[in-house]
Amino acid sequence: MEALRAAAAVSIGVGASVAVLVAGLLQAANEDPVIGQALSLSVPAKYRSLVESAGKACPEISPNLLAALLQQESGFDPKAESPAGAQGIAQIKPSTWEADGVDGNNDGKRDVFDPEDAIPSAAKILCDDAKELKDVPGNKQENMLAAYNAGSNAVRKHGGVPPYGETEDYVKAIGHTLADAPSGGEMTTTEQAATAINTAGDEIGTPYSWGGGNADGPSTGSCCSPNGSSGSGIKGFDCSGLTLYAYAKAGITLPRTAAQQYAVSEPVEPGEKSPGDLVFYGSSAKSIHHVAIYLGSGYMIEAPRPGLGVRVSPISSMPDLYAIARPVNHTNKEI
Q1: pLDDT of 198-214, one tens digit each?
Q2: CATH of 2-31+186-329 among 3.90.1720.10, 3.40.50.170, 3.10.20.30, 3.90.199.10
Q3: Is residue 8 within 8 Å of residue 312, measured between CB atoms?
């Protein structure tokens, strides 16, 4: 991190204020909570994107947890109604809906039977319960789920999961579903993202070398760049060599080329990008030619091109930004 702080202003060429900015971004990256897990539980295709998005509403939940809850509540039936009066895919009671239901699809109305409203509402309720019960003893996730079933007052009254058979079974059932979830690859945590950023930051100024860089660090390039200059004899990184190395230090294995790295990462919406995400450039997934690590506030760390060392640059410095994606740990999968 110290290397990044010292070199950022020189690398960008816009003054010491950027060095301070980057240092602040790194501090935030180290302090932010876990980003979450990739959705690996089975979810009907028409609800998958809703669950993936709503499952990132706060650090205490994940897409898998939200999927397990919806399966337990209604079996993904948007018209479900219980004898106790709970309604919709997320089985929310009318009084709770009146207080906490949201217009998830911005169509001007809140409809408990519309999954586009009910799924983000369920996520909001979980997040609110987690915040309200953060000082209650016991397992935080179990307390949050118990509150969804029995109410936060019951959890607080009993100092944890209340001794109600239905609630205890409910919490255990969702826990078992999560424990049995397929290992579809865990998305980057913020701790891993911070490690990758700090690792790349320590390489600022390292020469560009076409084909250079691996999990062990800078290496001598083995081939030729598009403009004909040889990478041979220069020890350093090309763009994907730098990202590969940075994430190897964070315990995440990425393949060698920028296009391959995009293929095994999880795309994120522009407004949801976080420090540590990978920034890809090209006209299509098959034509991706450059990758960098996002820092925050519109900046990235990159190994740009022959003649230039690793540096910090605005993500707008290249005109063909294609996508931003979050690395996924595929250690046990073919990549």
Answers
A1: 999 999 999 999 999 99
A2: 3.90.1720.10
A3: yes
Q: Where in the chain is the domain with CATH 1.10.530.10?
A: 45-179
Closest CA to 62 of 110, 136, 127: 127
For the record, the structure tokens of 59 come out as 């650090």
Q: Is pLDDT of 230 > 80?
A: no
- pLDDT of 146-196, one tens digit each? 999 999 999 999 999 999 999 999 999 999 988 876 655 566 777 888 899
Domain boundaries for CATH 3.90.1720.10 within the chain: 2-31+186-329
> Can you give the pTM of this predicted structure?
0.52
Distances (CA, A) of 33 to 60, 114, 189, 321: 9, 30, 8, 27
**Reported CATH class of domain 45-179:** mainly alpha
Task: Compute the distance between CA of residue 195 and CA of residue 98 in angstroms, rounded to an integer.
Answer: 43
**Alpha carbons 257 and 261: distance in angstroms, whole number:** 6
- Alpha-carbon gap, residue 278 to 272, rounded angstroms: 12
**Position 94, amino acid:** P
319: how many CB neighbours lie within 10 A of its CB?
A: 6
8 Å CB contact between 280 and 291 = yes
Of 114, 103, 100, 123, which Cα lies nearest the Cα of 53?
123
The 10s digit of each residue's pLDDT in 258-290 is: 999 888 888 888 777 889 999 999 998 889 999
- How far is C-alpha 285 from the chain's CA centre? 20
